[in-house]
């Protein structure tokens, strides 16, 4: 009788630049690969390793086998008459958090959640009515920014208005 051991993939959204450099060093690659990968993820909005053509095929294969770029999925969104878009993003396990994109003439602010639920009991806030559940992981927080940025567009050429400011929600703001 054989036992199948499931190895979870490393979500690269959990790693900062130094963490990525250390990761690449640990798999026998040069640390500059972290910079190349970050450009693909954060400037190009790419999550498919096969499309990262300045990485060699062997490295792309290693990344595909051992890693993922996994952000929360959009469950639904609502757009207000002023252009503001409220996104409900689904996390692993089915919980949802809200992320709000607020465009203005000279900037666009993204409000991102840092927790599922809230420990404060503000009567005007629907999140507070849930009570506090848990803090979000790095990839769940960064993933909100990445998901909305890739949805609305990453640059002035492709976006309604690219994200210029980020505000954290869920800490009793």
Question: How would the blueprint of this fold be written?
Answer:
Elements lengths: L9 E2 L5 H10 L5 H12 L13 H10 E2 L4 E7 L5 E6 L5 E8 L4 E6 L1 E2 L9 H5 L3 E2 L2 H15 L12 E5 L4
Parallel strand pairs: 1-2, 6-9
Antiparallel strand pairs: 3-4, 4-5, 5-6, 7-8
Helix pairs in contact: 1-2
Write a structural description.
This protein has 173 residues and is an alpha/beta fold. Helix content is 30%, strand content 23%. The chain contains five helices and nine strands; from the N terminus they run βαααββββββαβαβ. Strands 3-4-5-6-9 form a five-stranded mixed beta sheet, with helices on one face. β5 and β6 (108-113) form a beta hairpin. The protein is globular. The mean pLDDT is 87.
Summarize it:
It contains five helices and nine strands.
What is the CA-atom radius of gyration, in angstroms? 18 Å
Query: What proportion of the residues is helical, as a percent range?
Result: 25-40%
Question: Tell me about the biggest sheet?
Answer: 5 strands, mixed
Give the assembly state of these chains: single chain
Number of DSSP strands?
Answer: 9
**Fraction of residues in β-strands:** 15-25%
Distance between the termini: 54 Å
- Low-confidence spans: pLDDT under 50, at least 5 residues? none
Which structural class do you get from the secondary structure elements? Answer: alpha/beta
Element pattern in H and E: EHHHEEEEEEHEHE
The largest beta-sheet arranges its strands as 3-4-5-6-9
